[in-house]
Amino acid sequence: MMKKIHFLLMLLMLATACDDKLDENLAYFTPVFTVNMPDELQGATVTTQQLEVKDVSSGRKVIYSDLSDVSLKTGLYDMGYEADVVKDGITRHVTAYVQSVQISASSYSVTLPAFESLVNDDFIIEEIFFTGTLQTSGNQYYGDDYIKIYNNTDHILYADGLTLLESKFTTTDKYDYDPDIMGEAMTVQAIYTIPGSGKDYPVQPGESLILADTGIDHKVANPNSFDLSAADWEWYDVSTSASHMDIDSPTVPNLDKWYCYTQSFYVLHNRGFRALAIARIPVGKEEYLANYSYTYNYVVVNASGTFPMTQKAYKVPNAWIVDAVNCSVASEYAWNVTAPALDRGWTYCGTVDHDKSRYFHSVRRKMLYLKDGCPHFKDTNNSTEDFNPYCIPSLIEEQGTVIDMDGNLCTQRTWDGVTPKD
Amino acid sequence: MMRRITLLSLLCVWLSIAMLAQESPRWMSLDDTLRVDRLLSLAWQNPVVNQFSRTDGISHAGGGFSLHDEDGETALDVQRGNYSRMWHLAADTHIKHHRSTLWGHARYENGFTRNITWNETSDISTVYPYLLADSVLSSRMKSERYSFGGGYADGNGHLYWGAYIDYTAGLHYRNVDPRPRNITACLDMSAGIGMKVSTTHMAAVSLNFRKYKQTNNVAFYSELGHDKVFHLTGLTNDYGRFAGTGEATYYNGYRWGATLDLHPLRARGITASVNASRFAFDNILTGLNKLPLARVTHNSLSGELGWLGRSWGVRATIEASRRVGTENVFGDAAAMVYPKIGSNDMYHENRFDIGIDALWSSLWSSSFKTDIHPFVAYRHLNEIYADPQCCRLLGEVEWGTRLDGRWHVGRFMPGLALGFKLDHPVDSQWLASGVKEELQGLMRARRASYDYLSNFHWQGEAVFSLQVATSSRQAIRLMCGAVMGCYHSGLKTIDLLTTINYIF
Question: Which residues does chain A have within 8 Å of residue B334's beta carbon, measured at their own beta carbons?
């Protein structure tokens, strides 16, 4: 009998001994990192550094302060690198961002092309309200989207010539566009410019401009919306479709339309699948339109077959771009449609395509501190870090209008959608 | 509707054939609890051995209703819901003619399950842990399931052979958002050959094959958008890259197995069976150019060793299985094509069950019979997710007994069965690291389920049956049963089953 009991116990021990152990199932690799410093910082000494590694498959992020500690399983990774470096006794800050790094037994070398983070001495995009509002019937209302531009510097800026851009490519569909010019320019499909001779529209430090879709009091047509009749500018389109006419507000001046892809009227993508940017274009409209077109090829593969495509758009050199913000939704995000030097992150309203909770929300730049009663906003060219996603729009806060389809009124007042004003 | 008519026609034809083909057993022998070899389970999976499961022919046709309900803060397993109601029509027959045996069955089920969360697939015990899921506490998931099959076995001299084929198809759907539409299909086939190895025993071997497929399509009709769909990958993790997309998926798999049996020819003596199988399936996202998200391999080895006496039997069972989930890693997509760049074995599940049970039948008089069925088992389950590290380990000793009494009073045979099962956890571990914010709800539900199972729990069972003879070879049997379970934190479960069968 004792022998049988021993046999059974042995069997149980054997069975449990065969169990998998938590740390014995995966092979991990230690990547070999090469940080390529910009030419002017060659030979600089790294004092502090941080690497954020995002596993694209799982969506999880891990932050390392020592590159030799990084240990990764086979996978696809996005990596963001930041470091303080000292050269000639001066501390400078560099960043690098690489997407879609493949790590496997045969591929574990990672090159991080670092560039120096420079202080932006021009306007920034403070807020984008692209989702729109809902009518009392539950249907989407169009026309009350807007973009807020902010003077984050300590001196007067002139809005004359400041140009609003919308990317041609979406952050949700990635193709191998040929030629690939993203390192040098942004491919755009909408270009609207603030007119002026150079010093016609001064903006004081801590002040903002509102570029609206339609500068009217939208509450008249939709009680769930708000008043945009005091906006600074609106983008107005002369529509070729009689059934889809734009409204030209009598109280808000129009932006100078250089180009827009649509034959009717332009609205922001209401799920936020594109990048928006502001730029200062140093050439005239005619010269620009004549010399900055971009023809590109790509291949669409679907169940029906393989289709080579050729399309045309306009390009804006990265050097002209003052600020850029990529928007997307987590479920559909594929890539950034601007160079990492312009924006190496992205922000959002809603997490899935057609997210029904996105309406009445905007993305708002994070406030760092208050100076003389004015907010100073974060600007590290990383929209993931710089923006508060999914916020109540600032104009809804100011006007105390509706924040959802149930008609609830906004009672909060914040600097950035999160930090209260009180 | 056409399917139901077809099925009912099939049942009628089956019924007629069975009635014509039957010999004339006395109605007393319609009590199929008289044999102690019903203790066995693995042995009957071999079609060669199955011809010895009865010495006479018998057929059933009937229907029933079942209900499962839970009363607790969290469901025992939220992925299976906490309330279900099903009704069914079924018929089966076992026909003996000299050494030939023909058997078959057909069944139709219809009903619904309520409050399923974190799961939009069906047949979860087949396709886990790779599940299409969302966080919505859903309303009724309606289900229809059809199954039919049959087999034939025969012998000549010292040789025996047999084969069977079974097919089960299911349709599972919901009419409010989120609206899954799952179609399941499972085809099982087996064929074997045996040989008389002594005057009392035969040895048999069989090969079996399964083809399994499930297609899923979750739709949202709300004009304002929809909730996020996740591709769960085991314990508290998901394939984050494709979360919110890939609402159409399918599972496609095959199982191969073999059994080896030693079985008594006259239901007396030693019996032994061993089964080994390998089941592998792929989880594929249809909408992303048929992206193969993961592959699961499930290897299983089970054995059954018993002794069958005239009025008693005893057996020992053992089963060990290992399931590995291999997740593919894809490179940067271009034109919606995701190149595969590698794979990782992320999910591991080891199961090990060992048990002993016995059946003792006593004929106290010509009109009163009792069965007692005690059992004791050790069950071990260890689930691991490699990165981020997660673990669920459950080990328990389960024991209980079932007492069944039947009386023959004229044309009537009332019966009452009472049973209990106690589960004593002896080993448990829970680890959930790196759980995403959006999967916290899943983590809480799985943790609650772990708490239920890692603490002492028990089940009690009561079944009343009444068999009424309508002639010397026909009877009607009515059965009502209830199983109540009690778990940690006051969770109570109840399962009710009522059936009525015409036996002939």
Answer: 174-176, 299
CA distance B419 to B437: 44
Q: Which amino acid is at B124?
A: I
| Chain B CA closest to residue A24 | B386
ipTM value, please give it: 0.75
Give the chain B residue whose CA is nearest to the CA of A177: B334
Residue pair A318/A341 in contact by the 8 Å Cβ criterion: yes
Dist. CA B298–CA B368, nearest whole Å: 46
Q: What is the mean pLDDT of residues A229-239?
A: 89
d(CA A347, CA A363): 7
Closest by Cα among B376, B341, B371 to B359: B371
Residue count of chain B:
504
Assess contact for A315 and A185: CB atoms under 8 A: yes
pTM for the structure as a whole: 0.76
What is the spatial distance between Cα A271 and Cα A358, in angstroms, rounded to a whole number? 8
Beta bridge partners of A95: A82, A115
Query: Which residues, 6+ apart, have CB-to-CB distance to A59 below 8 Å?
Result: A330, B240, B241, B243, B436
Q: What is the pLDDT of residues B179-211, one digit of tens each?
A: 899 999 999 999 999 999 998 999 999 999 999
Residue B125 in contact with residue B351, Cβ under 8 Å? no
Distance from CA of B356 to the nearest CA of A (A): 12
Residue A55's closest CA among B107, B406, B434, B345?
Answer: B434
Pick the more confident residue, A140 or B499.
B499
Mutation for B interface: A25, A273, A353, most B CBs within 10 A: A25
**What is the structure's pLDDT at B1?**
45
Are A361 and A402 in contact by the 8 Å Cβ rule? The answer is no
User: B159 pairs with which residues across the strands?
Assistant: B156, B195
Looking at the complex, report in whole angstroms how far the Cα of residue B233 sits from the nearest Cα belonging to chain A: 10
Nearest CA in chain B to A331: B244
Reference A165, options A256, A293, A276; nearest CA is A276
For residue A57, give the nearest of B220, B239, B386 by CB distance.
B239
* Closest residue to A26, CB basis, from B238, B386, B434: B386
Q: From the CA of A158, how many Å to the nearest CA of chain B?
A: 40
Which residue in B227, B241, B356 has the most chain A C-beta atoms within 10 A of its own C-beta, making it the best mutation to test that interface?
Answer: B241
User: Does the beta-carbon distance from A299 to B387 stay under 8 Å?
Assistant: no
Quote the tokens at residue A201: 């529209």
Residue in B241, B380, B431 nearest the CB of A57: B241
B122: Cβ–Cβ under 8 A, 6 or more apart, which residues?
B143, B170, B172, B182, B184, B214, B216
CB contact under 8 A, B354 and A8: yes
CB within 8 Å: A354 and B391? no
pLDDT digits (tens, 9 = 90+) for A318-350: 989 999 999 998 888 888 999 888 898 999 998
List the single best residue of A8, A16, A23, A58 to mutate versus B (max B Cβ within 10 A).
Answer: A58
DSSP conformation letters of B44-89: GGSHHHHTTS-SS-EEEEEEEEEEEEEESSS-SSGGG-SEEEEEEE
Q: Where are the domains of chain B?
A: 2-503
A positions 146-175 inside 8 Å of B (CB)? 173-175
**Partner residues linked to A308 by β-bridges:** A299
Task: Provide DSSP, A320-379.
Answer: GEEEEEEB--TTT----SS-TTT-S--B-S-SSTT-TT-TT-EEEEPEEEEETTEEEE--
Copy the structure tokens of residue A166: 């919308």
Strands (E), A221-304: 233-234, 256-260, 275-280, 293-302
